[in-house]
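Title: Comparing notes on inverse folding

I've been comparing how different people in this forum approach sequence design from structure. To keep things fair, I'm posting one structure and asking everyone to reply with a full sequence. Here's the target:
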C-alpha cells in the first residue's frame, strides 16, 4: 500500500517509527487522503485536469486549421507513432517495474466485470426499450461501445499517478492491457459486426490485437517482473520514451471531437451518464462485497471504470462502419461530464 510521504517534517526516531507503522498496518493512500478539501480538489484540477483540458483544447484549435483531410492524416500519424513506439515503451516500463500481486490483478478483474455487466444492461436499454427505438443499428452499436469501454490508459494513467504515484500508473497499465483493450477487440468487435450489421467479416480481430506492439511489450514487461530480472536502465529508458503517450493521445482527442456539432440528444447523454456513473457503481459494489475495506487497488479500479469513453472506440466504429459522428459526440460529452463526476467519485471513495 502507498503511504503519503508529505505528511510533515519528521526526523530521527519519529521517521523510523512512522515507516514501521506504515509497513505494519499497511494504511492505504486514500485513507491518508481522507481529509479531502477544496484545496486538494484545486490541486487535482491544476496538476492533472488542467493539462488534460489544455491538450484537448489545443487539438480543437488545431483541428480548425487542418480541415477534414488534414485531421485524418494527422490522426493517422499520431496513432501510428503512439501504437508503435510511445505506448509500447510506457506499458513495458509499467509492467516490468510492477510487483505483480493479487491486489494489482484485482484492478483488471473489476474493470472486466463492470464492462460485462454494463454490456448486458446497456444492450437491453438500447435494443429493447424506447431509448434506442428510433435509432439505426449502426448508431445503437456505436453507443453500446461508448457506454462500456473507457479511456483507462490515457485518462486513467495521469489521474491514478497523481493519486497513487508510480503504482497508480501500473494500475492503469494493467487495467488497459488486462481488461479494456482485449475486451474491445473481442466483445467490442463482436458488437460492431453482429449488432452493427454493416461488415460481415474483416479478418480475425483477436489475431489483429495480438499483433499490436503494445501487447507484446506489456507481456515482455510482465515476464521481466515475474522472473525478477534487473533491467533498470532499460526500464528507465522505456519510461522516458513512453512519456509522450498520454499528451499526444489527448491532443488527438481534441482533433477527433466534432466541436461544431456538439448538440447532444437523449441517447448520447444517457449513455455518457451510464458510463460515468453506473459502471463505477458496479465496481464499487463488487469491491465492497469481495474486499470489505477498499484499498488503493480497488479505489483505482472504481475510478478507472468511471473514466470517459475510450478514444479507440472511434477507430473501431470507423473500421466497422458504425455511426462515427454519434460515437465522437458521445466521447465528447462523456469527457465534458467527467469533470463533474470525477469529484463526486473521489468524494465517495476517499472522504
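Reply #1:
Here's my take.
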Amino acid at each position: 500500500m502507498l503511504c503519503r510521504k508529505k505528511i510533515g517534517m519528521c526526523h530521527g526516531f519519529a521517521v523510523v517509527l512512522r515507516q514501521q507503522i506504515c509497513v505494519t498496518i499497511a494504511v492505504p493512500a486514500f485513507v491518508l487522503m481522507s481529509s479531502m478539501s477544496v484545496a486538494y480538489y484545486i490541486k487535482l484540477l491544476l496538476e492533472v485536469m488542467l493539462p488534460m483540458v489544455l491538450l484537448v483544447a489545443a487539438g480543437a484549435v488545431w483541428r480548425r486549421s487542418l480541415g477534414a483531410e488534414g485531421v485524418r492524416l494527422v490522426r493517422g500519424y499520431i496513432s501510428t507513432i503512439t501504437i508503435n513506439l510511445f505506448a509500447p515503451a510506457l506499458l513495458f516500463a509499467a509492467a516490468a517495474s510492477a510487483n505483480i500481486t493479487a491486489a494489482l490483478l484485482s484492478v483488471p478483474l473489476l474493470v472486466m466485470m463492470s464492462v460485462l455487466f454494463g454490456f448486458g444492461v446497456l444492450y437491453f436499454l438500447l435494443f429493447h426499450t424506447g431509448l434506442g427505438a428510433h435509432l439505426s443499428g449502426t448508431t445503437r452499436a456505436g453507443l453500446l461501445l461508448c457506454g462500456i469501454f473507457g479511456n483507462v490508459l490515457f485518462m486513467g494513467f495521469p489521474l491514478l499517478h497523481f493519486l497513487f504515484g508510480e503504482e497508480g500508473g501500473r494500475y492503469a497499465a494493467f487495467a488497459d492491457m488486462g481488461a479494456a483493450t482485449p475486451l474491445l477487440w473481442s466483445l467490442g468487435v463482436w458488437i460492431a459486426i453482429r449488432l452493427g450489421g454493416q461488415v460481415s467479416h474483416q479478418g480475425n480481430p483477436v489475431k489483429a490485437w495480438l499483433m499490436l506492439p503494445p501487447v507484446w511489450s506489456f507481456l515482455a514487461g510482465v515476464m521481466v517482473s515475474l522472473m525478477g530480472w534487473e533491467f533498470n536502465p532499460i526500464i528507465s529508458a522505456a519510461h522516458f520514451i513512453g512519456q509522450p503517450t498520454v499528451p499526444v493521445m489527448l491532443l488527438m482527442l481534441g482533433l477527433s471531437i466534432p466541436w461544431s456539432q456538439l448538440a447532444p440528444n437523449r441517447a448520447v447523454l444517457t449513455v455518457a451518464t451510464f458510463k460515468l456513473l453506473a459502471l463505477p457503481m458496479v465496481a464499487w459494489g463488487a469491491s465492497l462485497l469481495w474486499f470489505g475495506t477498499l484499498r488503493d487497488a480497488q479505489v483505482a479500479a472504481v475510478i478507472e471504470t468511471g473514466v470517459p469513453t475510450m478514444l479507440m472506440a472511434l477507430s473501431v466504429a470507423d473500421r466497422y462502419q458504425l455511426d462515427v459522428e454519434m460515437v465522437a459526440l458521445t466521447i465528447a460529452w462523456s469527457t465534458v461530464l467527467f469533470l463533474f463526476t470525477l469529484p463526486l467519485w473521489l468524494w465517495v471513495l476517499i472522504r
